[in-house]
Amino acid sequence: MITNDMKRFLVLLLLLTPTAAFAQAEHSIWSKKPVMVIDSHSGAKYTTFLKGNADIAWTEGSTFAYLRAVAVVNANLTYEFRFFAPISASTASEFSGKFDIFRNGINVCHFCVGKAYLLNQPAGAGKAFKLYVGTPTMYAEEWHYSGVITQRFDY
After folding, report:
1. Percent with pLDDT over 70 in the chain
2. Tens digits of per-residue pLDDT, 93-128?
3. Which domain holds residue 67?
4. Which domain CATH number covers 51?
5. 139 in a structural domain
6. Alpha-carbon distance 103 to 80, whole Å?
7. Are 116 and 94 a contacting pair, CB within 8 Å?
8. Got the DSSP string for the chain?
9. Which residue, among 31, 33, 21, has the nearest Cα to 64 in the 3D structure?
10. Long-range residue pairs from 115-119, CB within 8 A, at least 24 positions apart, any chain
């Protein structure tokens, strides 16, 4: 016979026991060094910037991520890439899903299919992570943002 105290103990044990969801690896990377932006509409490719930054965080195997990448090409031209929707797939080095892209604050690609990858490189290694975004209906290497990882935190 299971007593009420035993039931409470079992419930508490279940609540406090780590599950696979809690054991998933989480990653966060930062960049203050944009390397390249490609504007799919104009075909322009930029490799010099006044400033820029990217903040990316995701949990492997989950549908949760955050990405915001900004590149200021000049005083009159700024690009911003934002992750918009739940991840469709994620690993230690990449995730894919839907993104919004803004040029000078105007949304130029809404809910577009994209993929961020090469995210597992060590900070300061000099190689760039990459983000490519296509259209609202399909992935393609059209819009692009890449940057060098300047800091990372994995747990």
Report:
1. 85
2. 999 999 999 999 999 999 999 999 999 999 988 889
3. 25-154
4. 2.40.160
5. yes
6. 7
7. yes
8. ---HHHHHHHHHHHHHS--TTTTS-EEEEEESEEEEEE-TTT--EE---SEEEEEEEEETTSS-EEEEEEEEEETTEEEEEEE-S--SEE-SSEEEEEEEEEETTEEEEEEEEEEEE-TTSPTTSSPEEEEEE--SS---S-EEEEEE--EEEE-
9. 21
10. 115/139, 116/56, 116/67, 116/83, 117/93, 118/93, 118/94, 119/27, 119/29, 119/56, 119/58, 119/92, 119/93, 119/94, 119/95, 119/149
Q: What angle do CA 130, 54, 75 make, to 5 degrees?
A: 105
